[in-house]
Amino acid sequence: MTVTSTSPATHDPRPRAGTAAYRRTVIALVAAAVATFAQLWSVQPILPAIATGFDTSAGQAALAVSLATGGLAGFTLIWSGAADRIGRARVIALSLLLAIVLGAAIPFSAELWTLLVLRTLQGAALGGVSAAAVAYLAEEIHPRDAPKATGLYIAGNPLGGMGGRLLAGFAAEHGGWQWGVAANTLLGLAALLVFVLVLPRHKTGTGAPARRFGSDDGLSMGQRLKAAMTTRGLIPLYAQALLLMGAFMAVYNVLGFRLTDQPFGLSQAVASLLFLSYTAGMLGSAMAGNATLRWGRYGVLTTATLLLLLGLGGLFTTSVWLLLATLLLLTFAFFCAHATASAWVGSQAVTGRAQAAAVYTLAYYLGASLFGWLGGVVYDAVGWNGTVALALGLTVLAGLFALRLRKLPAPEPATRAF
């Protein structure tokens, strides 16, 4: 079967950068990113408080993050299938609504297992945003400007993550970990309202399947999944998501323990301030789109990986100021690499795009779940330096996988054969 898609020709009606529709779409998707990542990472800076409250270890407390990211990873393919049926924007809104309802219940957890179950379900609910957002931008924004829009959307990831962490840290300092979670649930609700009110409407419905360009109509889920797993270059890109996110989360999951322990001995609120390093992540994400136009995706990805290694190497320091500087560098580098790889998946997967984005997201959060938890286990066993060494090893492995992307040709968008 041969499916002919609409080529990104001169008369492509999708919005270009600078138009009102483009701005509204980007603002709405950034709001969705803020709502997602504020809630997903809300417990990370308050893991020491959770460990104290439930009288448990760093590794056990880290499950509050790892199970949420694991739930998100496990449901991305399910959400991607729903997005093909009811539209990506509807899936994003439903996903956020379910997560907010679950988030409202989390502060009432009296036992650790209850907290962990609710966090797993909340992560599963949030999977809808990650499964649909990049594919939505690839289909609704002009191909020339889609990488830039994707970079801006991904800049919303560290914005939400940083804001959620800071909000949780300060709220927990005054009212316990429960208030830290509750504050981010309210932030998620406000961001959901922005998404619903700002996103442009289409005659076929908000992001409905009929609106999609280069859609996979007529192809079965099995065919789309096969394309997502066999299209040249996608497997190495999935490896970037798994390994780089794993390295990043291994460090950030135990950062709160490192900062509140000796030699730093910071309070919960002051330790949370170091999550301001996520401002560098916003810059890295936003710059990635323009950088790839100048130097190519492989060049940007390789440079970001080298900078990430440099930043990780600086984490062995016992100076709080040098630690902040290295956090800024590694956070900038990670989100630059993530934005580049994510947009690359969106353009490389001309068939089964939603499924490719879902597999990338699955790998991304599987890395966060598995290696984020493992980072806590290593920290309990051998300390901070062991966790940093784990992150360095994962980053080197990601760089080796990236070598397969050096001469990756652009996909052929006009013809897709099955």
From TrEMBL:
Gene Ontology CC, one term: plasma membrane
Gene3D superfamilies, per the entry: MFS general substrate transporter like domains
Pfam families: MFS_1
Transmembrane segments: 21-41, 61-79, 91-110, 116-138, 150-171, 177-199, 234-254, 266-286, 298-316, 322-345, 357-376, 382-403
Main location: membrane
UniProt entry tagged with the keyword Transmembrane helix: yes
Keywords in alphabetical order: Cell membrane, Membrane, Transmembrane, Transmembrane helix, Transport
GO molecular function, one term: transmembrane transporter activity
Topology versus the membrane: Multi-pass membrane protein
The keyword Ubl conjugation is annotated on this UniProt entry: no
SUPFAM superfamilies: MFS general substrate transporter (SSF103473)
Annotated InterPro entries: MFS (IPR011701), MFS_dom (IPR020846), MFS_trans_sf (IPR036259)
Positions of the Major facilitator superfamily (MFS) profile domain: 25-410
Location within or outside the cell: Cell membrane
Family assignment from sequence similarity: Belongs to the major facilitator superfamily.
Name listed for the protein in its UniProt record: YNFM family putative membrane transporter
Organism: Nocardiopsis metallicus
